[in-house]
Amino acid sequence: MRQQRNMKSVNKATILPGKSVRRLICLLLIPAFLVGCEKEVTEPEERIRSVKTIVVGDLAANQLRKFPGTIEPVESSQLSFEVDGIVQAVRVDVGDRFEKGDVLANLDNQSYRLSVESAKAALSRASAVLEEKQSAYDRETRIQAEDPGATTQKAVDEARAAFESQVQEVTYSQARLQLALRDLAHTELIAPYDGTVSARFVEPSEVAARGMHMLEIYAEAAMQVAVSIPEQIIGDVHTGLEGQAVLNNLPDEPFVATVSEVGSAATAANAYPVTAVIENADERVRPGMTAELLLTFVDDAMQSAYLVPMQALLPGIQEVEKFVYLFDAQSSTVRKTEVQIAGIQGDEVVVIDGISPGDVLVVAGVPFLRDGQKVKLMPAGDSSQ
Predict the structure, then answer these.
(1) Do 252 and 179 belong together in one domain?
(2) Is the pLDDT of residue 345 over 50?
């Protein structure tokens, strides 16, 4: 009897209503459902970063040095009148081109023309008197030769002295005329070569003193780049050293440039002035433009040195540690490589250990990379990261 009661109690405890059974089943299925979902959800694939690279060049290319400078004309002049006067006309302005022999400016020359006419008249009178003196002297010498008693030695000497004196007068008059003609010619500023006006300092009706600068001109036919080179390497620079001039506004069109002059005295910054003539310079190369002079040196002490962009460097934990990323074409991954730095040149660093010619060096996106990361090369002409 007791056993039957217990069985009834158990049955009552284990038998649940229909709604409760359904709720229990749902609760039991939820973990299984979640596990199934976890299996279906996968981690997103890591984005393959694009990187920009350069190929480490050979030794000759990596001994290239760059020196900022300014374009200057090889030949320039400041024109001045060599006589005083009033400016009558200025025939050119800044930027105007001219040819050799053109009249660029002139003074009022009336007084100088009068001086020429006066000198001509004086010479004419002196020449006429000279003819008279010469005739008198010739007559006295002829008489003395034909009839010595018909004249005296004194008369002959006096005639000769008068003739010689008048020769000097004619010579003086000729010199005065040449001087007057020269002064008249100097009332014009004549172009000494084909060129361009770079500055103008005078206007018509102004007084022009002798030697006062009127115009500044330069010859377009030849341009040069003027730079300063540090004393540490000036010993390797010599006339005839060939390089390239790269204008900031024409970065893709380098011009051949040859060192024409090396200064003998250093500036305050312990650098020496150097100029290099630009070959085949056209009208796009103008004075005052900024440019770089690229020179290649053979330096035995730097036989394993390479110039790489500053942005290719990755600092290490220690201050002296520097790293770069090299691209492996086979695996399309990057390898973090420690390098040794010997110095800085502009926006580039001198690497003396850690890389070799032919290595593919990452130069953009370096801070976002890690050793062994898979990457892809940035398309040519694309500078985005």
Answers:
(1) no
(2) yes
